[in-house]
Amino acid sequence: MEVQDQLDQLLYQCLPDLDRAMQRQLEKEEKERPAPEPSRRFQRRMNRLICRERRSEKEKQRGDAANQRNRRFSGKRVLAAALILAAVMALTFTVAASIFRKIRVTQYRDEVQGADVYRFSSERGQGGELVVVYPAYVPEGYTETEKEYREKWHYLTMMWENAAGESISYRMYQFIGGSSFSIMMDAEYTSSETVEINGLEWFCTFKEGQYRMARAQTGDLFFLISTPDTLPKEELLRILEGIEPPGEQAVGQIFQKEGTEELHQRVKEIKSDAKEQAEADLAAQNTAAAEEGIAFIRENFPDYCGQEEILEKGIWYGCYLEAYYQAFQTPAPEDAVLSEEKNYWMGRLAGEIAQFAYVKMDEDQTLTGEWLASLEMLLGNEE
Amino acid sequence: MLTVYLSLIDTEEQRTRFEELYRENSSMMLSLAFRILGDHYGAEDAVHDAFVRAAGSMDTINRLNGWQARRYLLTAAKHAAIDLYRKRSKQASLELSYEDLEIRAEIEPGEDEKGNAVLEAVKGLPEHYRDVFLLKYSLGLTNEEIGGLLKLTVSGVKQRISRGKELLRKKLVDEGIFL
């Protein structure tokens, strides 16, 4: 038990007052020189941390004290299935496969860039009927300034402008004949809602001071409308009502769900365990697992998918390194200079590659191919 | 097509203490970290790191009231900024120089002459002692908890307290106060 002398007693008595006075001084200085608005990158990182803490607190409240630390690398058999992987705090994915023509649509949120990404690819040799859909309604005061159909990429772009120089843009994309396209849209909107019009489910977003947008996907078609934020919502809805998609296309969508929940749950468990361990090791300044993880990524490049155990280790080490070096995250892998920054990206990229392989997504390596290239660059630079 | 949207449900009931701490203190932490590092990007990294540390110590923080929790977070942000500064400059012994605004704090003098003298003496302590003193004597943290926050060993914390008290006694002796 600590023995308190007279000085200790005085310190216990007086220091709270000093502390408060010092904080008031800081508050005063802060009012005179307020801090600048935090960047979007910082807000995104803090939102992730807050969500994680919310989840953690909910789990505590539910009394979920299951110790998952010993459940590693069970070697569970991977089932061949297309499925959704909802990676909380990181990415949200949607995959659909057509039974008539194979159109792969992958939708995810890139938290670092603050963008919703739609990636479309269709198989070569699969033809299809070309479709062009023009909007039937344009708000009063707007005149057409652009109209172009790009045959190579099968997309239509139109633009209208009003006297104030504000513009409305409309794009219609069609994915046939081996085309592949990525569309990125701002994900940091103020509000959003989904409305169903003419059989299309429109996802509408609004960002004050910037835009009002709507997007919808059906079969091999993707529609995107962007208007000024000052345009009333009712006008946007009228524009959407004027867009009539073609009748039932020879493109269907099947979503196979076999084993979805089990695989999803297993990935979640592995990631949660890895993050917990990383946080504990950070607090204890333990670097052993981080060094192991870097060695694992280097030794197994580019084949993280050989065996189930390798897959699960890839997910675990990837998430571990991502959490361990979280403080060194840069906007993109190319921005990584310090070894800690590279370690962050090596973990993140390897982890995501392993996750995609685990759930048999992206078999043609449309996405993971790019990630492997970035990882190779990082590993090459390290050497 | 099945689509899963990730959304944050932000209601009063669902806000955790952690989130409240972030909303109430992040601005001041950013200002403090910016004073040390001189760039906003770095200051944000330091504050994020401080909150990561805080997230691992919510059991400790939940015992503290509002201004005590703020002191905890400010200390975490300051030390995270210092760590980042050292990593960037790769010179562990490099001395930082930044304006220590806190020592300008004015305390209303009480009747207790000894107490006043102790307060002024603590204000004049080097920062690395003063931070430990505030965490121990103002927040009531244990040596383990202080060590966890400042990434010191328990014996390191005890050493700083012991040396800090020696310095305080010397200053107080100059004022004619013997403790």
Notes on the structure:
The complex is a heterodimer of chains A (383) and B (179). Chain A is α+β, with helices and mostly antiparallel strands. Chain A has two domains: 69-80 and 258-382, no CATH class; 98-241, Phosphorylase Kinase, domain 1, CATH 3.30.200.100. In chain A, 39% of the residues lie in helices and 21% in strands. Chain A contains eight helices and eleven strands. Chain A has helices spanning 6-32, 40-61, 233-241, 260-284, 288-300, 308-324, 339-358, 368-382, and strands spanning 94-96, 103-110, 115-122, 143-150, 155-161, 167-174, 180-186, 191-197, 200-207, 211-218, 221-227. In chain A, the strands form two sheets. A seven-stranded antiparallel sheet of chain A has the order 4-5-6-11-10-9-8, with helices on one face. Chain A has a four-stranded antiparallel sheet with strand order 1-2-3-7, with no helix packed on it. The N and C termini of chain A lie far apart (53 Å). By secondary structure, chain B is mainly alpha-helical. In chain B, α1 runs antiparallel to α2 and α7 packs across α8. Chain B has helices at 17-37, 40-55, 58-61, 66-89, 113-123, 127-138, 143-150, 154-174. The longest helix of chain B is centred in the middle third of the chain and has 24 residues, at 66-89. Chain B folds into two domains: 16-91, Rna Polymerase Sigma Factor, Chain: A, CATH 1.10.1740; 110-179, Winged helix-like DNA-binding domain superfamily/Winged helix DNA-binding domain (Arc Repressor Mutant, subunit A, Orthogonal Bundle). Chain B has eight helices and no strands.
Briefly, what is this?
The complex is a heterodimer of chains A (383) and B (179). Chain A is of the alpha+beta class and 383 residues long.
CATH topology descriptor of the largest domain in chain A: Phosphorylase Kinase, domain 1
SSE order of chain A, as H and E? HHEEEEEEEEEEEHHHHHH
The largest sheet of chain B is: none
Q: How large is the radius of gyration of chain B? A: 19 Å
Fraction of residues of chain A in helices?
Answer: 25-40%
- CATH topology of the largest domain in chain B, by name, is Rna Polymerase Sigma Factor, Chain: A
Unreliable stretches of chain B, pLDDT < 50, 5 or more residues?
Answer: 1-14, 91-95
Order of helices and strands of chain B: HHHHHHHH
* Overall form of chain B: globular
Oligomer: heterodimer
Q: Structural class, from secondary structure content of chain A?
A: alpha+beta
Put simply, the count of helices of chain B is 8
Instruction: Enumerate how many helices of chain A there are, as a single number.
Output: 8
Distance between the termini of chain A: 53 Å
So what's the CATH class of the largest domain in chain B? Mainly Alpha
* Structural domain tally of chain B: 2
How many structural domains can be distinguished in the coordinates of chain A?
2
How many strand elements of chain A? 11
